[in-house]
Amino acid sequence: MQFHVAQNGEKTGPFDRDEVYRRLVVGELKPTDLGWHEGLAEWEPLSKLVPPQAPPLTASTPVFAPAALPLHPSAAEAPGTSGLAIGSLVCGMAHLDDSVEVVRGVFRH
After folding, report:
1. 91: buried, middle or exposed (CB in 10 Å: 19+, 13-18, 0-12)?
2. SS3 at position 78
3. Secondary structure (3-state) at 62
4. pLDDT of 66 above 60
5. Contact 4/13 with Cβ under 8 angstroms?
6. Would you say 46 and 79 are in contact if contact means Cβ atoms under 8 Å apart?
7. d(CA 63, CA 109)
8. How far apart are CA 23 and CA 50, in angstroms?
């Protein structure tokens, strides 16, 4: 559909809907400027003819990923975990592994 636009007494166009929308977004046109397309009896405000909405996606439209979510819901509620606590846990597990090897060695002899 092709639109004609009347702005400050000057008529321009025809423009396709996407071009009118683009011009509205960047401020070249105002929602109160008048527009007309075939089939209309009278000129009407562009806000009525091209209501605000998301423009069509194109190859240049940026797509944003949602923010990273915690792996487990309780992780978001947990108080801050000390790096020292995690280090102690890892060292304890490593020591336990060494102890198991010592015990295995005792039973092998």
Report:
1. exposed
2. coil
3. coil
4. no
5. yes
6. no
7. 65
8. 11
- pTM of the shown model: 0.48
| Of 10, 12, 4, 81, residue with least CA distance to 43 | 4
In this structure, what are the phi and psi dihedrals at residue 19, rounded to the nearest 5 degrees? -70, -40
pLDDT tens digits, residue range 95-108? 555 554 544 555 55
The β-bridge relationship of strands 44-45 and 10-16 is unpaired
The letter for the amino acid at 97 is D
The fraction of the chain above a pLDDT of 90, given in percent, is 41
Which tops the pLDDT comparison, 91 or 97? 91
Average pLDDT over the chain, rounded to whole?
74
φ, ψ (nearest 5 deg) of residue 107:
-80, -15
Structure tokens at 54: 């998301």
Q: Which token pair is 31?
A: 């929602």
